[in-house]
Amino acid sequence: MKLPSKELNKILVRRYWADRVFRLCAVTMLLITLGTLAALLIDVFIDGAGRLSWPFLTSFPSRKPEQAGILSALVGTVYLMILTVVIAFPVGVGAAVYLEEYARRGWLSRLIELNIANLAGVPSIIYGLLGLELFVRAMRLEESLLAGALTMSLLVLPLVIIASREALRAVPPSIREASFALGASLWQTIWNQVLPLAFPGILTGAILAASRAIGEAAPLITIGALTYIAFLPDSLVAPFTVMPIQIFNWVSRPQKGFFEAAAAAIIVLLAVLLLMNAVAVYLRQKYQKRMNL
Fold it and tell me: pTM of the prediction?
């Protein structure tokens, strides 16, 4: 049934204005969000820029605000992120390879996929409670660096699996078919053809997952990570602290000097986060160029 031209014009006009109103609302919300973020960043830089110095980065925490540093928290964060990536990356990539290349499309694989998707949205405090019961108490790792790394690995593992699966799906099926046609086995095809092509996406997903973990404090507080450490961890079972916990400790103190130290620590944390994302972008472009040669 063909509508009259007048009614059709009215419908088109309503849709046009509805589209304009929606765009206006979307742009307004975006500007409000970016404005709030910019205001917070400006406030942090105003409070913490003057506190940034080499002694601040190389000194241990202190009960005196002017002498407090972030060395133990910075080193603990680096150690924790390295251990988390070392644990979560091979497990996550292996799970993604199994689900994409080996698992049969049945109810079991769909159930696993559903659970992985749900785990990606679980609040981080739940992983902290799981780590407290499993790693700290059941495995008797106490409040150690290894217990923290295992807990954070559980947190980022669903993200690594999802990103790795998307990267594997992006590999054209013709690559696999050509490899099979030349007599390669399934594992040879995966190892020599599929994984090299998917590696930039897998690596980017792993680093972005680690970028999420670097700012988490709730799981580590739950497992009992310390808020004041005046030494560097010398083993996997040594006590540790990280920058989010150190920032939480400083902002809970009444002295103004600790607020400035917390703002400076936030700037350092943002710098580390931006550095990790820059490394992810660089490695992605590097490997993509290599694959295009």
Answer: 0.83
